[in-house]
Predict the structure.
Amino acid sequence: MRALRLTAAVAVLALLGLLVWDVAHSSGGKVARDVDKGEIVKAPTFTLPLVASSGKLSLASLRGKVVVLNFWASDCVPCKQEQSELNRLAAKYASKGVVFLGIDEIEVRSFAQRYLAHYKVPYKSVADGDGSIAGKFGVTGTPETFFIDKLGRVVPPHIIATAKPSAVEAGIERALSA
Amino acid sequence: MTRTALKGTVVLLALAALVVAAPAAASEQHPSQAELEAILVCPSCHVPLDESNSSVAQQMKSFIATRIAAGDTRSEIVDELVGPPNNLGTAVLGVPRTHGFDLVAWVLPFLGIALGALAIGAGAWRWSRVRSEPAAVPLDPESERTVDEALARFDG
């Protein structure tokens, strides 16, 4: 009986430890919150399938470049409103080592592919099918835009809703100079 | 049981298995839109697909219709939503799958019931065990005399 009680106590303690570890190690959407406070934080890593073609893309593969990370969805009206400006800015900054990357949120792939074709999006998009990466970044809706510097750190600003071109350019300049 | 009765039982069991298995096999090979919408969940609003009108739910319904028309099986359609090409994850499943790690969700409740039954059985067995009577302790002469006197008073 004593051994049984000891085993139960150990099991409960182990589960509690696991819970504490998980809470301590999950970013839990801290990125957006910290960046909004003006802090520079390490970008959560991810490898996700490409939307328009086969294969995957890893954020780590873009290290050394400034990345404009835009969370979008095909049914999102503000995403459509900002798309032409994002396309223009992607072309404008390509020669400066700035890469635009779209992250499509929780969608059936063919709908996302149709959006990319319709809006002639010139840069790559990856599919965050289950929304887990959006969760890590603390994204609460679409569109949202983050700026990642050459060292893989997210720098302010973090743009919620339709991004004004001036705000995007300010974010790029900040990331280039970080 | 006679030989004829045994044969009859076997035939009956085989028929019963056929009655259960045939519709399941048909549903797997030729799933309907309604049954797939009933077992799948909208990953953004977490309600059954047939009760959701969210954007992703509508996309999933459209995808299901296309794949049914293309002749995909039920498992294929579910797998294509959970994994590639759509990668919506297991959040779209209304019930856990019956293979891989998800099988644990099906097995664990029965394992719990079996363990509980075992624990109750073991407890009942221990509780009902006949305990040996404690050995009679002889009275000291003084107490024995007192008891004898008391009994004699009752008898007298």
Remarks:
- The mean pLDDT of chain B is 87.
